[in-house]
């Protein structure tokens, strides 16, 4: 009889222990839904051609290839090669490049 009481007490203790432990789910790998990058347009102002990240490769007859055509840059074909950084600091090391092309038609 004493063995039956001990077995019952042990069973009840295990049942209470199992029911009170917190339910920890294993951490599953979730895909990242948000990436934040910063890319820089370093525009040419007549003095910083070595640092400029764009170039005018096509322009109308009245324009030139060192500055945007006036007014409104109409007819310019501009290509960009901008550095990508992980933070908002201009002097951060680049982690990649953004290459794009604009055609100004308005």
From TrEMBL:
GO terms for cellular component: apoplast. It comes from Olea europaea subsp. europaea. The keyword DNA-binding does not apply. Dirigent proteins impart stereoselectivity on the phenoxy radical-coupling reaction, yielding optically active lignans from two molecules of coniferyl alcohol in the biosynthesis of lignans, flavonolignans, and alkaloids and thus plays a central role in plant secondary metabolism. It comes from the Eukaryota. This is Dirigent protein. The lineage of its organism: Eukaryota, Viridiplantae, Streptophyta, Embryophyta, Tracheophyta. Belongs to the plant dirigent protein family. Homodimer. PANTHER family: DIRIGENT PROTEIN. Pfam families: Dirigent. It is found in: Secreted, Extracellular space, Apoplast. Residues 1-22 form the signal peptide. Keywords: Apoplast, Secreted, Signal.
């Amino acid at each position: 009889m004493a063995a039956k009481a001990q077995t019952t007490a042990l069973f009840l203790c295990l049942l209470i222990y199992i029911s009170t432990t917190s339910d920890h789910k294993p951490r599953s790998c979730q895909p990242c839904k948000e990436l934040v990058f910063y890319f820089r347009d370093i525009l040419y102002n007549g003095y910083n051609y070595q640092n400029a990240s764009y170039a005018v490769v096509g322009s109308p007859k009245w324009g030139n290839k060192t500055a945007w055509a006036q007014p409104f840059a109409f007819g310019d074909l501009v290509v960009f090669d901008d550095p990508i950084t992980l933070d908002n600091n201009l002097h951060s090391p680049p982690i990649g490049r953004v290459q794009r092309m604009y055609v100004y038609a308005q």
